Amino acid sequence: MTNLPKEVEFQQAYDELASTLTNSTLFEKHPEYKKALEIVAIPERIIQFRVVWEDDKGAVQVNRGYRVQYNSALGPYKGGLRFHPSVNLSILKFLGFEQIFKNALTGLMMGGGKGGADFDPKGKSDNEIRRFCVAFMGELGKHIGKDTDVPQVLAGDIGVSPREIGWMFGAYKKNTKLWEGVLTGKALSWGGSLIRPEATGYGTVYYVENMMKYASGGSETFAGKRVSISGSGNVAQYAALKAIELGAVVVSLSDSKGALIATGDKGISPEMVETIAKIKVERKYLTDIASTDGFSSSTKYIDGARPWEHVGKVDVALPCATQNEVSGPEAEALVKAGVKYVAEGSNMGCTAEAIEIFEKNRQTKTANEGSVWYAPGKAANAGGVAVSGLEMAQNSMRMKWTTEEVDEKLKQIMKECFENGLQTAKTFVTPKEGERPSLVAGSNIAGFIKVANAMKQQGDWW
């Protein structure tokens, strides 16, 4: 990677994968995979384009648009779109690189990609956002298709919702005269899948359920657990609601301006989550409701903070906001708070330092001593793209599955995702007696092997 411009986020994602492969027995047993890693690290294609649109005052505006078509060994490129001023190639390459292996772990036939623009929807009118979406799809539409590249709105993608997907789908249809499943995350009334909005949050909780069952021999559940969640968008909301449904006490949510911490024994209620969901649709912040009657009596708001150092005793931590939202010192605080399970609902939610702290704790403490068990986003938050894959299948068949059918398929995918990482870790990173297998290593290796083997059989390396 030394001949590339400095790409901090992508380099972190690459180093995290490469280090776990190197520190396992994979390259010792199969040295040829070193060449596969070198090849898979380079995107098959990067598309960069300008997006020219008109604001409400009639002034011309311009943004940069991107699509990183990273790897198609397992199927059409699949990955979300992000509209945010921070969007750049480093971030999209990191997200696309992670998406390759995440999609592989779902067991569905999907490649990996990511796209977006440095457009900021905040402060824009609905008409301005619509005009931008139409202009964006005017260029992106030349490079996608149901068997080529299927972008999506994911719960964790910033600035893009089913509304924006609808505008982009309409523009694609007008330009191509095709009604096809070229975008997922559509409205339920015209091709969207049930459980799609909930899928990433629900899937993260289902993944942790499997961690608990394995760790306890089937006796441990979410009932009575104190669960700290960061974020307050789609992923965080549905992770909170599912955890509460399973008997947990949710003790925090947050956004970019601060953290909401529960002060009572009952935690954050479903009604409070519903209120938060409403203000987030209006692009407001937690600070706008923190002092209202429904919140001030049972929560406290900490301006400019993330929740990890303020929640007190906690059993489960679910980073569900954005990348690098758990630092080294915050990881240390969670360990001191008694956390047993950490699972990323966001992509690369923990810094490299935080992961090292969690993994060192897992290695130096036995399961009986209450070691921390960490699950990376490419495994724990795969539920969102999994149901996007199920939406593609439903579109292809021109049918819709019931809520129960989709939810059951999601549970099974998350179970298989967990077990695949678990068994692969046992094979290539043999744990010591009393030590739980490394889910980060197992998930990385399992996803990589599946993609590398497909690439080899298709002649991409030999």
From TrEMBL:
Gene Ontology MF: a single term: nucleotide binding
Entry keyword set: NAD, NADP, Nucleotide-binding, Oxidoreductase
A Pfam match: ELFV_dehydrog_N
Origin: domain of life: Eukaryota
Protein family (similarity comment): Belongs to the Glu/Leu/Phe/Val dehydrogenases family.
Binding site for NAD(+): 200, 234
Subunit structure: Homohexamer.
Glutamate/phenylalanine/leucine/valine/L-tryptophan dehydrogenase C-terminal domain residues: 193-459
Site (Important for catalysis): residue numbering on this chain: 157
Origin organism lineage: Eukaryota, Fungi, Dikarya, Ascomycota, Pezizomycotina
Organism: Cyphellophora attinorum
The reaction(s) this protein catalyses: L-glutamate + NADP(+) + H2O = 2-oxoglutarate + NH4(+) + NADPH + H(+)
Coiled-coil ranges (or none): none
Entry protein name: Glutamate dehydrogenase
GO cellular component: cytosol
Binding site for substrate: 78, 99, 102, 156, 388
NCBIfam families per record: PRK09414.1
Catalytic residues as annotated in Swiss-Prot or TrEMBL: 114 (proton donor)
Signal peptide interval: none
InterPro entries from the UniProt entry: Aminoacid_DH-like_N_sf, Glu/Leu/Phe/Val/Trp_DH, Glu/Leu/Phe/Val/Trp_DH_C, Glu/Leu/Phe/Val/Trp_DH_dimer, Glu/Leu/Phe/Val_DH_AS, Glu_DH, Glu_Leu_Phe_Val_DH, NAD(P)-bd_dom_sf
Gene Ontology biological process: glutamate biosynthetic process
